[in-house]
């Protein structure tokens, strides 16, 4: 093979990998990802999902947290702190997600979610209502 052919193939491989890792929608492996969980102190039942299922990896996007009491009633006055990272890699998210809007009926918008690589992510939510804080962790596999 001549140098031109090797260079052309290398460029095509790198370009294909770049497109695959940056422009395809987030793929959440449903078998590994719990969408709804009970908080650690059993105060809340929390669902946490992308606002737009076609969100792109490496792009900031929003998720929606739905919070209910253990009895199934919507929690309408929560404050939510979000943190996350890849435990296996020892790093956090490249952004600082934050609650930006109370959408009503127990739904809250979390802006600034971003996954910069495929793999196992942990998303930690600290939910505070009337000076009581409870936490929940979601394990997400991003492909």
Features:
143 residues, 5-stranded antiparallel beta sheet, single chain, mainly beta, 9 strands, Immunoglobulin-like, elongated
Please describe what this structure looks like:
The protein has 143 residues and is mainly β. It has a single domain (25-142), classed as Sandwich (Immunoglobulin-like). The chain is 14% helix and 45% strand. The protein has 1 helix and 9 strands. It has one helix at residues 3-22; strands at 36-38, 44-50, 61-69, 79-86, 91-92, 98-104, 107-113, 119-129, 132-142. The protein has a 5-stranded antiparallel beta sheet, with no helix packed on it. It has a 4-stranded antiparallel beta sheet with strand order 5-4-8-9, with no helix packed on it. The longest helix is centred in the first third of the chain and has 20 residues, at 3-22. The radius of gyration is 19 Å and the shape is elongated.
What's the structural blueprint in terms of helices and strands?
Blueprint (H helix, E strand, L loop, with lengths): L2 H20 L13 E3 L5 E7 L10 E9 L9 E8 L4 E2 L5 E7 L2 E7 L5 E11 L2 E11 L1
Antiparallel strand pairs: 1-2, 2-3, 3-7, 4-5, 4-8, 6-7, 8-9
